[in-house]
Amino acid sequence: MNAPANLKYTKSDEWFDPASGAMGLSDYAQSQLSDIVFLEIVVDVGDTIQAGTAIASVESVKASAETYAAAGGKVVAVNKALMEKPETLNSDPYGAGWMVKLEGGEPGDVMDAAAYEKYCAERAH
Amino acid sequence: MTYIPISPRERDAMLETIGVKTLDDLFKDVPARHRFPSLHLPPALTEMEAATELADVSANNENVRSDLISFLGAGAYNHYIPSVVDHVLRRGEFYTAYTPYQPEISQGTLQGIFEYQSLVAALTGMDVSNASHYDGATAAAEAVNMAVAQFRGKRKKLVIAPTVHPQYRAVIRTYTQGMDLQVVGDDPRTDLEAGPSDLASLVDDQTMLVIVQYPDFFGRVYDYTDLIAKAHARGSLVCVVANPTALALFKTPGEMDADIVVGDGQPLGIPMWFGGPSLGFFTTKKAYVHKMAGRLVGETVDARGQRAYVLTLTAREQHIKRERATSNICTNEGLLALAAAVYLSVLGKTGLQQVATLCYQKAHYAARQLSKISGMGLCFTDPFFHEFALCLGRPAEEVNAHLLEHGILGGYDLGQDYPSLKDHLLIAVTEMNTREEIDALVEVLSEVDHG
Amino acid sequence: MVNISETPAKALSARVVEPTLFDLSSPGRTGVTFPEPDVPCEDLPAGLLRKDLPLPELAEVDVIRHYMHLSTFNYSVDGGFYPLGSCTMKYNPKINEDTCRLPGFLYTHPLQPIETVQGNLALMYQLQEWLKEISGFAAVTLQPAAGAHGEFTGVLIMRAYHNSRGDLKRTKMLIPDSAHGTNPASAGIQGLQIVQIPSDPRGNVDLEALKAACDDTVLGMMLTNPNTLGLFDEHIEEVIRIVHESGGLMYGDGANLNALLGIVQPGVVGFDVMHFNLHKTFSVPHGGGGPGCGPVGVAAHLADFLPAPLVGIVEEGDDETPPLFGFITPAKSIGRMKAFHGHFGGGMVRAYTYIAMHGAEGLKDIAQYAVLNANYLLARLRSTYHVPFDRICMHEFVAEGRFEGSDVRALDIAKRLMDYKFHPPTNYFPLIVHEALMIEPTETENKDTLDLFADALIKIAAEARTQPELLHNAPSTTQFGRMDEVKAARELVLCCWLPEDYARYA
ipTM score of the complex? Predict the structure, then answer.
């Protein structure tokens, strides 16, 4: 599994990029969900959200999950194109798979990549 | 023990393998003071006795095939069911199978449902159908749940035409209690002459769903195209509750751009069975498929390259989504969806058009003849399908009692639900009613007038 | 006639085993037709008509052959052992198929005057009474259509009860981690907050966790007992006491009632509400997914909240005349759950027949032999498959479908069982057991069948070690292999149509 060092991660498997304000679902999460077939982002541009707010609902062939905001702030962009091609969450979770972008995003309870990798490894057993 | 295939010797061997002495020893976790109550039930019947008893119970009803001539509809209709339908349903391969969770050994059920979905989509003019709901009323209530989910609870207003079946409106009220919705239009005291355009005035930017019936509860057929366009202009969804037989003749709700089309499948080869089970069909546009409740069968291929079918988009459903699911439906009406599919396939285009045409012509003949009786008349002038409201000029209850004395099951007493329609009957006529029966109805009602 | 090779390219991407009704259609063919109108006809209202009715055109023999072919693709209880945990796939007595099709049942309209349907109403009344006696509840509604519909009904009743007492702060529903998905969904769709209660190491409700969750915001608890591990909660009275002391109500999920017939009455133990699954416990066939029938029983303090209408005696009888049965509306009814009276013909008549043919002793036999069969299979399998909560079980038990050092999963074992001509157990449920295989044999299987099934599972365990590819590639002897579920979900082909150039064949 892959966890870029420049990102922050939550225990519920979301990532947040402090540089761009983007957030999404981690590589670990997409591999656990397997083939994602549906994504609904439930926040709109202009919304102010808190870290921990539900921002999206994801369904795969076998599972479903809620995605929570890894940071709080004002939503300045929503990746509508991703909703049309939710399988992008599997193929490019940290790139084209971003869900929303925040302005002045304040991270919630997040960890760095090394801690997150350790956290994922523990759960694999 | 007719249905328990274990001999005393086998039982003892099994108990020994388990390591207990008696069957009762298996229940030690049950609190002793409540264990093994004596139930006060009648002594067990043999099959022969049960067959006789049930035949007696059945005979203690007056049925509409041999005892009564029926003009009663109001949501359940006396249609002819071709023999083929029950011959298919009686196959143990279909009726003793479970929900097709193991597709490798359930392709019969899966292809059957896929074809049901296809037939219902074709009939309603919609993109997709699910594998069924419990009945028309609960399907309509699920349409409300879907609209709530579609707007994520941000829109709170539900517009229901007063001419939607009273029991469907009641079920929607039950389902939505505690959901903090504003329900408007659902008022039987409003002007029932009003057409769909009056309903449009109730739709605003907070409206999530408009529900109308087609034909409406009084049998009237309206083109809802304008209403739907006006609702769409306000961002609302529109659900049409449709009678499937009528759809053989009339413009489809799909063509009118309805977002959801639901209804009761009982007219499609399912006996009235004193009201159930029947099936609720539910169709929508492809754009809303992920918000639709219930099981859904999709086409795929198996590992050997064969065309095959599976339950798909299952992550919407309760067994995966649990408390986040928009519906709790699990068991549906699988076998009756099969009945509807067999009915539609064996009637096909020609047969279903014949049935609908017979219903239409016989109902219109009945309406013409009945309105000739002095003091009686049709309540509404709009086009209708196979039901119409008849003004009697005297209490409906009295008239129905008189009809029953002549072996005729009269219409539905509309005064029960609509204060302005006391002294009105809703008369239903299907292909099962002969001209002689209709003439008999007219004759007995003429006597009422003179009596 | 339509030749498969002439249908659109889409169909050619896969080998067609049985064409669809639409593939088989040929313009101008007719099946069942109807008489010419015997009344003078008028013109149809031109502006309101549909342009085309794109339904298949087939003869009756085409239809029968099609469905006979499809039937051969199905596994069924009539065809073999179906040990699907939590589904109670017992034999469906054939007499039920005849009784539910008697003309007085088939051809009565739900809105007929009650005087003309006294047979139906008497049957419903009697069934209400029998279910009350079997379960120990004070009142029963037959209206709910299925188990989940019964749960929905029950939760509405529980909330209405608290609301009627002005107790509006109860918004939490306690649900064990082993529960069926319908439980949290039934509470969730009503906006309740779900609090998950863990299980203890013996598979019971964890009492400490339960106590910690109980306060004056608890609406109630939904508990399946025996639970989905097949275990009767060893502290059931304590669980109920704790919930009641917090002011909450106790909901019983009756999915597993087959184990309790004549063994214990849930209403007497202290449950306030429970749904029955007539399609599990009382032999109503599952029909490939329904229809079911999900009556709800309630204790006396909830009887006024039941959905309307119920069947009651509206005029007492005497020595010469039977009572008159009719419909009654409870005083504080939550309303109507569906149109008309519930699943009368397909559900209630079959269940009535079944109970009438069993009596008190026969019902107890059902539970005892269901539990005997489950424990026998457990005894035969426990040395081969790990059973995480291993004690005397009720009607079912849950084993793990995985082996140390093997990449074989429960799914592989399930699929391999098909090669041995068995329907697999439920897998991946309950969620608290890894790689769960949930096995419910029911009382209607003989020892020979159980032995063959146990032998097959033991052999499969050996194959998992020596030839795992047999399991990974299973099933190989069935008519269809494993499915491409990703393709189905991504491409979403949810219906078929007549070919675009259909008219060409006319």
Answer: 0.97
